[in-house]
What we know:
By secondary structure, the chain is mostly helical. It has one domain: lambda repressor-like DNA-binding domains (434 Repressor (Amino-terminal Domain), Orthogonal Bundle). Helix content is about 55%, strand content about 10%. It contains five helices and two strands; from the N terminus they run E-H-H-H-H-H-E. It has helices spanning about 10-15, 20-30, 35-40, 50-60, 60-65, and strands at about 5-10, 65-70. The protein has a two-stranded antiparallel sheet with strand order 1-2. Helix 2 crosses helix 3. The radius of gyration is 11 Å and the shape is globular.
Amino acid sequence: MTKGAISNQIRTLRFMAGEMSQAELGQRIGVTRQTIAAIEAGKYSPTLEAAFRIAEVFGKPLDEVFQWKT
Length: 70
């Protein structure tokens, strides 16, 4: 099995949502700003629950926020 990576559009979506801060997004989904920063940078993959919550904040389907690259 090849190792893939999850990329995301969180930074772009935060900017488009009135330049929402990482801290605000974290607060809205129940994680720390540092967790959002790590997810955004691709250093940490979110839990499935966190991924759905992030997508819900932006009103986007999951696959518009996160992409799987092989």
